[in-house]
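Request from the bench team (R.T.):
"We need a structural guess for the complex before ordering more potassium ion. Sequence and SMILES attached. Just send the tokens back."

Command: build protein-potassium ion structure.
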Amino acid sequence: MWSTIKEKLRTLKPARLIVMYYFIAITLSFILLRLPGVHIDGQYINLIDSLFTAVSAVSVTGLTVINVSETYTTFGIVMMMLILQLGGIGIMSLGTFIWLLVGKRIGLRERQLIMTDHNQYNLSGVVKLIIEIIKILLLIEAVGALLLAVYFTQFYETWGEALLHGVFASVSATTNGGFDITGQSLLPYANDYFVQTVNIFLIVLGAIGFPVLIELKQFLSNKNGAFRFSLFTKITTIMYGILLALGTLLIFIVEFNKRFEGMSWHEAFFYSLFQSTSTRSGGLVTIDVSTFTEPTQLVLSILMFIGASPSSVGGGIRTTTLAIAMLFLINFSRGRHQIQVFGREIHLIDVYRSYAVIILAIMMSMLSIMMIMVLESHSLIAVIFEVTSAFGTSGMSMGITPDLSTPSKLIIMMLMFIGRVGLISFLFMIGGNNQKAKYHYPKERVIIG
Amino acid sequence: MWSTIKEKLRTLKPARLIVMYYFIAITLSFILLRLPGVHIDGQYINLIDSLFTAVSAVSVTGLTVINVSETYTTFGIVMMMLILQLGGIGIMSLGTFIWLLVGKRIGLRERQLIMTDHNQYNLSGVVKLIIEIIKILLLIEAVGALLLAVYFTQFYETWGEALLHGVFASVSATTNGGFDITGQSLLPYANDYFVQTVNIFLIVLGAIGFPVLIELKQFLSNKNGAFRFSLFTKITTIMYGILLALGTLLIFIVEFNKRFEGMSWHEAFFYSLFQSTSTRSGGLVTIDVSTFTEPTQLVLSILMFIGASPSSVGGGIRTTTLAIAMLFLINFSRGRHQIQVFGREIHLIDVYRSYAVIILAIMMSMLSIMMIMVLESHSLIAVIFEVTSAFGTSGMSMGITPDLSTPSKLIIMMLMFIGRVGLISFLFMIGGNNQKAKYHYPKERVIIG
Ligand SMILES: [K+]
Ligand SMILES: [K+]
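Reply to R.T.: structure attached below.
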């Protein structure tokens, strides 16, 4: 029977494996969240809300229809952390373990998911790499948890409570889970720059992409200086930095005389920086985003739609997709069809992929916004915010999540799922097998734009 | 001196010629609208509003900060019609005349603007073709004017008045100008299916694209049946039809129990059909669009953003751009990189173009929405509606146009201009000369989406 499963897995396409992994992870998480002892006595959570929480946690989004601290026991909260790890570290480590398990030779595409262009990894190298990924992430989480737990001792009566809050906050930030057990995200720490700075570092390290972390580690341990960062690392890191800075700047400027009126510059700056970081897909907030003006909410929505780096705990169309679209546009307007950057040429197929991802993401988001607008009676901006937050697996919300009807909850769940899996995987899953055209038709031009 | 101008024109790129034509047309229109006798005595129109009206009329958009019938004399209204012709027929006929004038050999791209793939046209053929375009359009306008003028005699006291209203309505509909001299668009004819049907036909004939009209004429005059419609005509016409039907259906469904409550099915159907037609860029309305629900307003915005066929009087990203994006997505999800349709293969460069147009259009619209949101205090949907209406040169509005501040008016003017000129022309104008890469860099893959 085991060999039948192995055989079945062997014939699956990688994209389908990823999708399948998440289906299994969601089912498992759903079961974990229905275990006896998970809920606080007297708290009744219906099945759809448990499913919603499971999907939100596995996709490390953080949109929630319930209040975690008022719903789950300490045991339940530990389960939540487990699910966040399952989702956050999952795709990179466990996913690759599955491939190893079924003895499938790690092909180009699969290897790309863990490393862009370093061909030196053989099977045992991949195992080492995955262990390294897990080690790095657990290390980051441990350092974050330690810092926060020790700091939290001043706010909580017992060491145990401080530890629980510290560990949960660190896991939620590093996996970009966006959940909280304070009942009000990081609002209690709106003026605590230490907690915010730690959280920002954890969120960035989780969302910057595992290949970047691995390469950074290699760079730091490589004393002779011959190390070359991959094109992927350069592009994604620069784009991440641009988006973070641009988001901070835009929030700061737009809200300067509005929401930030009367605040000191550093208060306003930290509010801007933290919320900008959260769109890249942390999801934690230090301010009620529904109190921002609409232009800011729109900026946040666009940033969430873009999302984080590929091969990270974040979602959205991903930084590289936007980067390639921008590079393409610049080159095209200059009459060039090759994209040259950092002394390298972007492969044509990646330009195609970015196009497909952008078109599909826009169509999907538009359709979701429209459907939820028809189903609910919330303001347009609140719905746009909710949809982009789900697709970008950011998890920020203007507060409408618990009021959604079941059909809308299902739409949001689907968006979180697709946002996490990534549109490219989703596209190949729905699209079926690769096939080359067997013959060519004559070409004919069409007038465009 | 004349030869110097000819020499200057000869060295210009076609895209720059188109842009230049519109600059000249706007300047001329602005002067026409400032002539003595144009304004009704006592009506003071400031320069920015005259410029806005000129840009709106030349780009045949129809967004207006003034009430035409209360502002302009009959002479002024005749000037308006002249400007609409300048804008509507302009790019196709006068634009090509300029090329002929300067003796420039009609190259592939220029010929495509009047005909996609029929290589049989030499210089004198092009002259014939342009004359044919003008003849066809004037014929359509004349038939429309006659039908409407005769019909209008029942509403107006004098034949002269009926004629003026008939001619203006026909010109405004055929050029997709979207202006009215009733002071309230076609709302007075909300239950007059004859006037609406005539208008729908005129709008569609103007927005379906000149190549389609020419090919249709050739097809009808070609008795032996050997005529083959071009790929362009097939794609644009089918997409036009799909958008028209889909728009009608969506408005009908969404508003059925809302705005259309208590109406007969044919009333609701005609409201849906007419407003759907107008997004493809007619701009005339039979209902106050601000009374629709937000999902409908969003549907209308998306439809206006898409716009009409290329080489037509409409704007937006154009039907073919969307069609190629959709075809690309379908083929890509099946693992194919060639787009095959109707026994033809789409050229790679056209896929690139559609990508560039879509990315640029979205960025431009987003930026405009954001800026106007910061500048004004209108609802998000009203601003989205206004921006997409300007870019799609549709001209429908939720009523905020006259209240816009000068900076916002300038943004809307720029959008109308770019929407009319077309993003491809705009892109090549800002991008400078074509240049081939002189050397290739090594290719490197990047993780997408
Ligand atoms: K999140
Ligand atoms: K129009």
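Two things stood out. The first helix of chain B runs from residue 2 to 10. Residues 2-431 of chain B form one domain.
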